[in-house]
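Input record (one chain):
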Amino acid sequence: MKFSIVIASLLLPYVGAARDREKKLVRAVASAQGQTVGDYEIIVVADGCKRTMELVQDAENVRSFIIPQGKLFSGGPRNKGIEEARGEYIIYLDIDDCYGPDHLAKIEPHLKDYDWVWYNDIRWDGRWKENFCDIFQVGKHGTSNICHRKLGVTWDMRGYAHDYHFVQKLHRFKNFIKIPTPEYYVCHVPASGRHGGYEV
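The corresponding structure, as predicted from the sequence alone:
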């Protein structure tokens, strides 16, 4: 198997959370199920969230797990996903985002000689447009921007900016490359003190 798609899910309310996350989880899973590359599995890990398990229990090509709820934004669910993964490469999907149908197909040809790859994503700005990411700066990339082999690297349990800290660990493996932008659609960015957010 080529890909393990790991989806971490917490449907309880918290500051900055997207609206209608139950519907968005279903949308995210459906977008993963609709990939034109067929060599993948979907792993949904519920962060203490029984409702997540109810929503995905009958979904095709999905294995689901529940772990004790941890600190908000901790790496526990993604670590469980890595532990359970059967694929050669791990890739992520946030519950409030979605893939285009060729997301995996656009990544696969670039994987042959690399331990991990990274790429830009696509965000809403009145229309969908490429968003330039920087894996060397905190806050300039996310979970959406990487695909990696099982390398013995784990997500931190510390909470916020866990995606940045995880990628810094990946930098120990020098065999990586930036590839052309695939089809990862970031559908929710919460507003901050400096930036307006959006939700689609």
